[in-house]
Amino acid sequence: MPDDASARTATEQLDALYLKPHKFTVAKDIGWVDPHGRRFIGLSPFVALATVGANGGLDVSPRGGGAGFVRVAEDGRSLLLPDRPGNNRLDSLRNIAEGSGEVGLMFMIPGVDDIYRVNGSARLVVDDELARTFEEFGKVPKSLIRVEVREAYLHCPRALMRSDLWGDSHRVDRSILPSLSEMVSDQLSLPKPEATHEQQVESLRQGL
Fold first, then answer.
1. Residues 46 and 131 grouped into a single domain
2. Pair 59, 94 in one domain
3. Which residue, 179, 153, 156, is CA-closest to 76?
4. Tens digits of per-residue pLDDT, 188-201?
5. Is position 62 within any domain?
């Protein structure tokens, strides 16, 4: 870990390398989810969730659902995010339960290049009655993630514009890659899976 002097030196070097942010870039973090943020989250079917564990290990997990699957509290100071069935590694949940609880969320809307970001502290909520109100795909989440909002702001669209994420310039046919199971089998030196990619996708759809 760098000492205070080396950290200051690194910061000074960064400040010399880059221009200072525009005052509005700093001021746009209003610290709560306002009506524009609420509308954005209400239209978003996808969020990336970043967490940090007790040992400082990091994880970023994709989360998806119907538009508005993440709920914003009436006062805009907290969010509720359902935990859907996954691979049961529980990396995000373990990080929240065992670590500092610090999280970062990045909401995206297909076709929109702007991003909405939320940072704050999270805790796990196990409440069967509340969880039932989040039922989707015929399943009730086993737990919810409550995030107390500390930072909330719109992120400029340049990254998605550069990547043309919603356009066709970088779109590829899925067939140019092996199936997920084939790649994992190769990584673990396992026999080639018998199921086709299409069969594997259908099996995943059944487990949503």
1. yes
2. yes
3. 153
4. 999 999 888 888 88
5. yes
String of b and e for 162-177 (b: at least 16 CB within 10 Å)? Answer: eeebeeeeeeeeeeee
Give the DSSP letter of residue 74. T
How far does Cα 2 stand from its chain's mean position? 29
Tokens of 139: 């399943």
Together in a domain, 153 and 178: no
pTM as predicted: 0.89
Is residue 70 a part of any domain in this protein? Answer: yes
Neighbours of 185 (CB within 10 A): 15
Give the whole-angstrom CA distance, residue 97 versus residue 195.
36
Task: Answer whether residue 2 is part of any domain.
Answer: no
CATH number at residue 55: 2.30.110.10
Q: Contacts from 166-170 at CB under 8 Å and sequence distance 24+?
A: 166/110, 166/111, 166/112, 166/113
Number of domains in the chain: 2
Is 11 inside a domain boundary?
no
pLDDT over 70, % of the chain: 97
Among 93, 45, 49, CA closest to 69: 45
Q: With the C-alpha atoms ordered 158, 50, 117, 2, is the resulting torsion angle positive or negative?
A: negative
pLDDT tens by residue, 14-51? 888 888 888 877 778 899 999 999 999 999 999 999 99
CA distance 33 to 30: 8
